[in-house]
C-alpha cells in the first residue's frame, strides 16, 4: 500500500512538473540578436536622454529593469556604433564590468555586462554617433518649413540598437518611461503618451505602459505642432503642414471605429499621426500611439489616406501580436494588409475594395516574377540567416500574406474568419509569436481536424513553398473591366475625354500599369496632355507614370522624375524607378547622376539600398 501511495505521489509530482514546463513560454532563437533572453531578459526601460543638434548626438542613461532568470553573472545587450562609457547596477549605481564583442555586419556588437544573481537593474551610460542608422538629423533646409532642425528615428528592423543599447529582438517586449531634454523651441514626441504642445523647459516625459518590442521605440524632435481630429485621434506636423494634414486625415477617427467593429477594442489609448519631412524612408511606420508618415500621403484630396488604414491595422497585427523573429515578418505585414483592406472596404466601399484587390494581385505577380517563382524569398516564412533582416521587408510578406488570408476567408466564410482573427488577436495580445505558433493556433481553432478544409486551404504550401499556389482566390473589378475595354480601343478612338471616365487614383493606376508594351513616345505625350500625369497627380500616380516614362523613354518627364527622386526617400518607391533606370547603360549613368543629387536627403537605409543596386 505504501509503495502504491509513493507511486501515486511520484506520478503526481512528475505530472505537475510536466504541466509547469508546458506552461512556460518557449524561447525562440533570434538569429539577429546577441541577447540570450532565456538567461537574462529586459522587462522595463527608464530612459533619460539629451538630444543635441550641435553635435548630432543623443546621450544619457538607459536603466533597464531585468529578470535574471538563470541567476547567472551576465546579461547581453545589442549595440551598434554606440559609445558606451559606463555601466552600473541597481539604484545605488554600483559600477560593473562590460565588454564589447566582435562587430558583425548588420548586427553590431554584443554588449556583455557582468551582473550578480540578484541583479534587477542595469544602468548603461552612452551616446550615439554619426553612424547611427536609426537616426536622421535634418538641417532646417531639409524640413518643410526651412526654419529649425529635425531628428527622427526609424528602428525597424535591427536599428534601434544604434540609438539605445537594448535587447533588439521583436521577440522581447518591455514597457518604458522616458525623460527627454531638447532645445526649448522644439517639441519631442515618442511611441508613447505624448505632449500636445511645447513647454518652457524643453524637458518632456513619456510613458508606454504596454509592452512593446525594441523596433517600435521611436522618437522625433522638431518644430512640431498638434491638431486634434476627435477625442482620441490627432495630427502632429510642422506648422506649415498642420492644417492640410489635419484636413487630409479627417476620417482618422472613423477608421479607428471601423477597425474596432471588426477586430475588437483599440488598446493603446490615443492614436495620433506625425507627418515627417520627405526623407522618411517608408510610407508609414506603425510606432505605438504615434504613426510616423511620409508627407507624400498629403495629396490634397484624401486620395491616399488608405495608407493610414494599413498603419492603423498594425495596432492589432504587429504591435499587439508581433512576429517573434524577422523570418516571421509575414505575420505582421500579411495580416496588416488584410486588416487594411477590410478597414478600407468599410470606409470607402466595396467597389474600391475590389479595385484594390486587383492592384494587389498584380503586385504579387510582379514581385514573384522579379524574384523568380522558385526563389526561397517568395515563401512567407523566409530564412534571413546571415543576411540583413531588412531584406525580409519586401512586398512578398504583404501581398502573398494577404492572398493567403483571402484563401482562408474564402474557404471558411468571412463571418467565421472574422471571429477567428478577432480571437487570434485576443489570444496573443501583447505577445510575440512565430509562424509555427500561428499554425498551431490555426489548426486547433479553425481546421479542428477537418482534412477536407485543410486540403482546400493548403496552408503549408502558402507558408513554406515558393511561388503562388494554384488555389489563390480569383479577383475581379467591374470598374477595371471598363478600363480594360478602354485600353483596347483608345488607339483607334483617341485619348480625348478619357480623363473624365478614368478619375480615381485606383482607376488611373490601373490604366497606367496596363499601357501597351509598344506604346510610342507620341502616344505617351497625348496621354500626358490629357491627364497631366507628369506635372499633376498624387504620389502614387506620379510614381507609376514615371516608371512607364523610364521604360518607354519618354524624355519630357525626365526633369520631373529627377525632382521626384530628389524630393522623397521612400525606399520602395525610389527603388522602383532606379531599377528601371539601371536596366540600360545610359539609364544607369543617369540614375547615378540623379542619386548623387538626391543622396543628401535620403535616409541611411535608402542610401544603402540604392548603392547596392547601382554598383
UniProtKB/TrEMBL annotation:
- N-terminal signal peptide: none
Q: What is its main location?
A: cytoplasm
Co-factor binding comment: Binds 1 zinc ion per subunit.
- Enumerate the CDD domains for this protein: M1_LTA4H (cd09599)
Which cell locations does it reside in? Cytoplasm
The keyword Metal-binding is annotated on this UniProt entry: yes
Cofactor or coenzyme needed: Zn(2+)
Protein residues bound to Zn(2+): 310, 314, 333
The active site is formed by 311, 398
Provide the GO MF annotations for this entry: alanyl aminopeptidase activity; metallopeptidase activity; zinc ion binding
GO cellular component, as recorded: cytoplasm
* Pfam families listed in its UniProt record: Leuk-A4-hydro_C (PF09127), Peptidase_M1 (PF01433), Peptidase_M1_N (PF17900)
Q: What class of enzyme is it?
A: hydrolase
What's the family?
Answer: Belongs to the peptidase M1 family.
Q: Which residues form the Peptidase M1 leukotriene A4 hydrolase/aminopeptidase C-terminal domain?
A: 477-614
> What catalytic activity is recorded?
Release of an N-terminal amino acid, Xaa-|-Yaa- from a peptide, amide or arylamide. Xaa is preferably Ala, but may be most amino acids including Pro (slow action). When a terminal hydrophobic residue is followed by a prolyl residue, the two may be released as an intact Xaa-Pro dipeptide
Q: What is its EC number?
A: 3.4.11.2
Q: Which SUPFAM superfamilies match?
A: ARM repeat, Leukotriene A4 hydrolase N-terminal domain, Metalloproteases ('zincins'), catalytic domain
- The source's domain of life comes to Bacteria
Please report the name of this protein according to its UniProt entry: Aminopeptidase N
From which organism does this entry originate? Flavobacterium johnsoniae (Cytophaga johnsonae)
Q: What is a biological process (GO) this protein takes part in?
A: proteolysis
Amino acid at each position: 500500500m505504501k509503495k502504491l501511495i509513493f507511486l501515486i505521489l511520484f506520478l503526481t509530482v512528475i505530472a505537475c512538473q510536466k504541466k509547469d514546463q508546458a506552461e512556460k513560454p518557449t524561447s525562440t532563437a533570434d538569429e539577429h540578436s546577441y541577447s540570450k533572453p532565456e538567461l537574462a531578459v529586459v522587462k522595463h526601460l527608464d530612459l533619460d536622454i539629451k538630444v543635441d543638434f550641435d553635435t548630432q548626438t543623443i546621450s544619457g542613461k538607459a536603466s533597464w529593469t531585468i529578470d535574471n532568470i538563470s541567476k547567472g553573472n551576465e546579461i547581453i545587450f545589442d549595440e551598434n556604433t554606440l559609445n558606451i562609457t559606463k555601466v552600473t547596477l541597481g539604484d545605488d549605481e554600483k559600477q560593473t564590468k562590460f565588454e564589447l564583442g566582435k562587430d558583425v555586419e548588420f548586427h553590431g556588437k554584443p554588449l556583455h555586462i557582468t551582473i550578480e544573481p540578484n541583479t534587477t537593474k542595469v544602468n548603461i551610460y552612452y551616446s550615439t554617433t554619426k553612424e547611427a542608422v536609426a537616426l536622421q538629423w535634418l538641417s532646417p533646409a531639409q524640413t518643410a518649413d526651412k526654419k529649425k532642425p529635425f531628428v527622427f528615428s526609424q528602428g525597424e528592423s535591427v536599428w534601434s540598437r544604434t540609438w539605445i543599447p537594448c535587447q533588439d529582438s521583436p521577440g522581447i517586449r518591455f514597457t518604458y518611461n522616458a525623460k527627454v531634454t531638447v532645445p526649448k523651441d522644439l517639441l519631442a514626441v515618442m511611441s508613447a503618451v505624448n505632449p500636445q504642445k511645447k513647454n518652457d523647459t524643453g524637458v518632456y516625459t513619456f510613458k508606454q505602459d504596454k509592452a512593446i518590442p525594441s523596433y517600435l521605440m521611436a522618437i522625433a524632435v522638431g518644430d512640431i505642432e498638434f491638431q486634434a481630429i476627435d477625442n482620441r485621434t490627432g495630427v502632429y506636423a510642422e506648422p506649415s503642414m498642420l492644417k492640410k494634414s489635419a484636413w487630409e486625415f479627417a476620417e482618422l477617427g472613423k477608421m479607428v471605429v471601423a477597425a474596432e467593429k471588426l477586430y475588437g477594442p483599440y488598446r493603446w489609448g490615443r492614436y495620433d499621426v506625425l507627418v515627417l519631412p520627405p526623407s522618411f524612408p517608408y510610407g508609414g511606420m506603425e510606432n505605438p500611439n504615434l504613426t510616423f508618415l511620409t508627407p507624400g500621403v498629403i495629396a490634397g484630396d484624401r486620395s491616399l489616406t488608405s495608407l493610414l488604414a494599413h498603419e492603423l491595422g498594425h495596432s492589432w497585427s504587429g504591435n499587439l501580436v508581433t512576429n517573434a523573429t524577422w523570418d516571421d515578418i509575414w505575420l505582421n505585414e500579411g495580416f496588416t494588409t488584410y486588416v487594411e483592406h477590410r478597414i478600407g472596404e468599410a470606409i470607402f466601399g466595396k467597389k474600391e475594395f475590389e479595385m484594390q484587390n486587383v492592384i494587389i494581385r498584380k503586385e504579387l505577380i510582379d514581385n514573384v516574377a522579379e524574384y523568380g517563382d522558385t526563389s526561397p524569398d517568395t515563401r512567407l516564412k523566409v530564412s534571413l540567416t546571415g543576411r540583413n533582416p531588412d531584406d525580409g521587408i519586401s512586398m512578398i510578406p504583404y501581398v502573398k500574406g494577404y492572398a493567403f488570408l483571402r484563401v482562408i476567408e474564402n474557404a471558411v466564410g468571412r463571418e467565421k474568419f472574422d471571429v477567428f482573427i478577432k480571437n487570434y488577436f485576443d489570444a496573443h495580445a501583447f505577445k510575440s509569436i512565430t509562424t509555427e505558433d500561428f499554425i498551431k493556433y490555426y489548426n486547433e481553432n479553425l481546421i479542428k481536424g477537418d482534412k477536407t478544409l485543410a486540403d482546400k486551404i493548403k496552408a503549408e504550401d502558402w507558408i513554406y513553398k515558393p511561388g503562388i499556389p494554384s488555389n489563390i482566390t480569383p479577383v475581379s473589378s467591374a470598374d477595371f473591366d471598363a478600363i480594360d475595354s478602354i485600353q483596347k480601343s483608345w488607339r483607334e478612338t483617341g485619348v480625348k475625354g478619357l480623363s473624365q471616365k478614368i478619375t480615381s487614383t485606383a482607376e488611373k493606376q490601373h490604366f497606367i500599369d496596363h499601357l501597351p508594351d509598344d506604346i510610342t513616345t507620341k502616344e505617351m505625350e497625348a496621354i500626358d496632355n490629357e491627364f497631366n500625369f507628369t506635372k499633376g497627380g498624387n504620389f502614387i500616380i506620379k510614381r507609376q507614370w514615371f516608371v512607364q516614362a523610364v521604360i518607354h523613354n519618354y524624355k519630357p518627364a525626365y526633369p520631373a522624375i529627377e525632382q521626384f527622386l530628389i524630393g522623397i526617400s521612400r525606399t520602395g518607391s525610389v527603388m522602383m524607378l532606379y531599377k528601371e533606370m539601371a536596366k540600360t547603360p545610359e539609364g544607369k549613368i543617369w540614375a547615378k547622376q540623379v542619386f548623387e543629387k538626391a543622396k543628401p536627403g535620403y535616409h541611411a537605409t535608402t542610401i544603402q539600398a540604392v548603392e547596392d543596386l547601382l554598383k
